[in-house]
Structure formats: structure tokens, C-alpha cells
From TrEMBL:
Organism domain of life: Eukaryota
Gene designation: Plin3_0
Protein's UniProt keywords contain Transport: no
This protein's record includes keyword Nucleotidyltransferase: no
Any one GO cellular component localisation term in the record: cytosol
A Pfam family it matches: Perilipin
Matching PANTHER family: PERILIPIN, PERILIPIN-RELATED
Subcellular location: Lipid droplet
An example Gene Ontology biological process: lipid storage
Protein name: PLIN3 protein
Family: Belongs to the perilipin family.
Organism of provenance: Nyctiprogne leucopyga
Keywords for the protein's UniProt record, in alphabetical order: Lipid droplet
Predominant location category: other
Length: 113
């Protein structure tokens, strides 16, 4: 999970969502009260679940470690094959717009000739 969260694409997307969420909460008092209630509910459920799940996690720890190692190797390979994962969302959007504009310009040129 940490490795996925540290991918530039994922972390920049999370930052964008977090900024939008915070901005929305600050701008709209009714939404803020709903979000605050939801956050408290999620926190309570998380705390209650953590205490119940801990014994199970302790039992499964060797299996989780093996799966984590396997997933980590897979993510490393994916990162090598998809360099896009190392770019922030803003750059990906900009690059995509540039590519589309270039293709449209090429199509216009082809049609006009």
C-alpha cells in the first residue's frame, strides 16, 4: 500500500482530491457538517474494526508478508513498463492535451492538402 501511495501519479491524484475536498468543506457549511459527521463515523468504525481484526492479522502475518513482497515486485515491474506512473496528474493532463492538439493539427493539415 505504501509503495502504491508513493507513486507520483497516485500521490498527486490524492493531493488533488484532498485539496478539492477541503475547499468544498470550507466553501459550503452544509456539506462541511455532513462531511464532519461522515469522518467521525469512519474514524469510529476504523477504531472498532482495528481491535477486532488485530488477532486475525497476527495469525496471517507471514502470508501477508509474502503477498506484500510479491506485490512489491509486481509494482516495480509495472513502474518500469509504465513510466506514466512516475508523472503527476497535472503533467499527464498537459501532455495529453498537447498530444491531442498535435494530432488534430496533423489531421487538419492532411485534410487541407
Amino acid at each position: 500500500v505504501n509503495q502504491v501511495a508513493n507513486l507520483t501519479l497516485v500521490s498527486s491524484a490524492c493531493d488533488m482530491v484532498s485539496t478539492a475536498y477541503t475547499s468544498t468543506k470550507e466553501s459550503h457549511p452544509y456539506i462541511r457538517s455532513v462531511c464532519d459527521a461522515a469522518e467521525k463515523g469512519v474514524k469510529s468504525v476504523t477504531e472498532a474494526t482495528a481491535s477486532c481484526v488485530q488477532p486475525v492479522l497476527t495469525t496471517l502475518e507471514p502470508h501477508v508478508a509474502a503477498a506484500s513482497e510479491y506485490a512489491s515486485k509486481g509494482l516495480d515491474q509495472l513502474g518500469e513498463k509504465l513510466p506514466l506512473l512516475q508523472k503527476p496528474v497535472g503533467q499527464i493532463i498537459s501532455d495529453t492535451k498537447e498530444l491531442v492538439s498535435s494530432r488534430v493539427a496533423d489531421a487538419k493539415d492532411a485534410v487541407s492538402t
